[in-house]
Amino acid sequence: MAQLTMIEAIQNAHDLAMERDDRVVVYGEDVGYFGGVFRCTAGLQQKYGTSRCFDAPINESGLIGTGIGMAAYGLRPVVEIQFADYMYPAYDQIVSEAARLRHRSAGDFTCPIVIRMPTGGGIYGGQTHSQSPEALFTHVAGLKVVVPSNPQDAKGLLCAAIEDPDPVIILEPKRLYNGPFDGHHDRPVVPWKKHELGEVNDAYYTTEIGKAAIRREGQDVTVLAYGTMVHVALTAAQETGVDAEVIDLRSLIPLDLETIEVSVKKTGRCVVLHEATKTSGFGAELSAQVQEACFYHLEAPIIRVTGWDTPYPHAQEWDYFPGPARVGAALKSVMKEH
Q1: Is 103 a catalytic residue?
Q2: Domain extent for 236
Q3: Which pLDDT band holds residue 314 (cuts at 50, 70, 90)?
Q4: Are 205 and 293 in contact (CB under 8 A)?
Q5: Which residue is catalytic, options 14, 103, 129, 231?
Q6: Per residue in 125-160, pLDDT tens?
Q7: Phi and psi (nearest 5°) for 124?
Q8: Which of 12, 45, 200, 257 could form a disulfide with 4 if both were Cys (CB 3.0 to 4.6 A apart)?
Q9: pLDDT of 190-244, one tens digit each?
Q10: Which run of H or of E encompasses 198?
């Protein structure tokens, strides 16, 4: 076991997967020689050569288009889009080609491509470096979408995604790359090396796609979160004293509805968190699923705590970010409903 940052865990997953399977190739903008803008692919080109880890032009449509071709012909491409905000030129390729290839070919071809994207705010990146576009992918049949919240899952989910025969989108909260951010931006950063989820197995392993994890057990309210919001939820529960059960979804599609349903039927209340804008965000889908599955067990309306329906602001970063104060207020509010 080693104490790793999320960056180091992702790099380790790449390394072990490439060592195990020579079909795995890794590429993207600055991914090769430089090792990625966040250093998630550091050292891979030196170890495996320029044919298996290489830099690509600044052309997201070309990145994904070539990756789909590689996947159809038997390779296992792992493509990094430098920021999730830059994926829009590639969206047609992802939706119309990668997600549809198995179906349009009647199973003759599959598309085992992994698309990694740093996502979310909290780094003063402004509107073009802070977006959380997960709902644009969860709406597309044929894609799997995962969001790790810690180094253990970042490694296991990436290894599982590389093994998967179909396209997997991995959204990596960049605010978590170096530590578990709880939303208090005015406090010192806690490094992963001091956190239990920073302890990562040295060996190759996979984390099941489609299985949630309960990060905190509780009796009063179920909190559904993913990525950075998992840590914000844990902090809010501690600061308010509300006995919240915090579920780290890890996988958005497929969704672990069984774990959610068991928890909500126990607590009778549900709060949904995400950093993306509220309208048509993935929280709306979660709210609908809980309503359909647990209606007669709910003792209060489901509450969503999200980003605002605006572009991500630069100067007002922490007014937009759903921090522990807003989450705590939602926990207190849902407990007042009878």
Answers
A1: no
A2: 213-336
A3: confident
A4: no
A5: 129
A6: 888 999 999 999 999 999 999 999 999 999 999 999
A7: 60, 40
A8: 200
A9: 899 999 999 999 999 999 999 999 999 999 999 999 999 999 999 999 999 999 9
A10: none
